[in-house]
Amino acid sequence: MNSASPDALTASFDRLPLTSALLQGVQSLGYAQMTPVQAQALPAILDGRDLIAQAPTGSGKTAAFGLGLLHRLDPGTGATQALVLCPTRELADQVGRQLRRLAFAMPNLKLSILCGGMPLAPQLDSLAQHAPQVVVGTPGRLQELLRKRALDLSSVRTLVFDEADRMLDMGFEEPIRELVKATPASRQGLLFSATFPDGVREISRAMLRDPVEVTVEAGERHAAIEQRFYEVEPARKTQLLAALLLQERPESCVVFCNMRRDVDEVAGSLAHYGFTALALHGDMEQRDRDEVLVRFANRSCNVLVASDVAARGLDVKELALVVNHDVPSDADTYVHRIGRTGRAGREGLAITLCTPREKNRVEAIEQRQGAPLAWYRATPLTGKPNNVPAAAMTTLRIDAGRTDKLRPGDILGALTGDAGLKADAVGKIDVFPTRSYVAVVRSQAAQALARLREGKIKGRKFRVSRL
Q1: Rg (CA), the chain
Q2: Are strands 225-231 and 188-193 parallel, antiparallel or unpaired?
Q3: How far apart are alpha carbons 114 and 355 in whole angstroms?
Q4: Beta-ladder partners of 85
Q5: Which of 343, 311, 335, 39 has its CA nearest to residue 196?
């Protein structure tokens, strides 16, 4: 493989051969200097080369492949010209939003997000009316649309594999191969992955031509993260976790489990102790996953227990603490997990619970870091505590959304008007097509719920409930 030239490492975006419309998109997102992955990858991408990039979450990879695929579009052609494959709907939504922001100055651009867990009929209708130039989606649903002859990939110029390692973990290799086969041999291939197990290397060899290789280490970003390791017997893991959460009292925390079945069990145990803890994993219904993510992002849940796959696409800017309830099976996954805290120059804390049988995995992490790890002692919890910190907010669900022409301002107006709340008692408001969520300061949630049920929003009555 070829290596990318490091010359661009301090370059600004205006040194790239981008259109004025794309430079406007870059400016609208507030980007000034390129991140390392953008500086190393973009010259090769804009030159039409295939690329394989190892880059952690938060490194700016979406803008790197986004600018590349938008640069190659012919807005006058109605066919699908760019395809982005993502492992989860959450990540696809996040990628789609960022691409739309980058492309805001490009006229007549249609971008469609096509994922499983959503009704099929509206997607079929949308594709029948007018083919999107850009498609972002999950492999299973895209395969289904391809087989129904609703999705035509014969004009694709750029094919992106985002989070390739997790797509393979989720068993998407067969649909990925079918989708790739439906694209022209001449298309550009861009593969991004946080880790590089053998399966990813094999798929890159089969689907990319003489790719430029880019590697962005997460090491620098972890300088502000304090890493602590605790040895514990398997039966006392959750009691130790509860004790450490009481000790640290984080405003927001993600607890990672290696196995899906452990996610529900750990979340249930923490809820029993009195924590506002929720589970997030791939076996959940899409609506339930959406609601968990909304509640975690708006601070009405302060502990999220998750599997690795489900946490991809999680967009929480200030994460105080990451806990590994289990030691990850490889060092790359460990680096990826802890990189979710300590972002943007803030300090972060990463705690790992380790049983005697997991010690060999810790040795691999130590070798990867090239420095000894810090071991601590703590006493597991006994009995049920009475000083568990409650989440700051409570979420109210309104059974109406964008299809009812409801906007965040309408909900805020109803709460600060008829419901009598002050604006600073209202937190994040999320409006979906058929439902909306608003975070309210916990102490005023009952008042807000009662008033909204009695009154109206935008002159209409809607069903309101507390999550």
Answers
A1: 23
A2: unpaired
A3: 41
A4: 137, 161
A5: 335
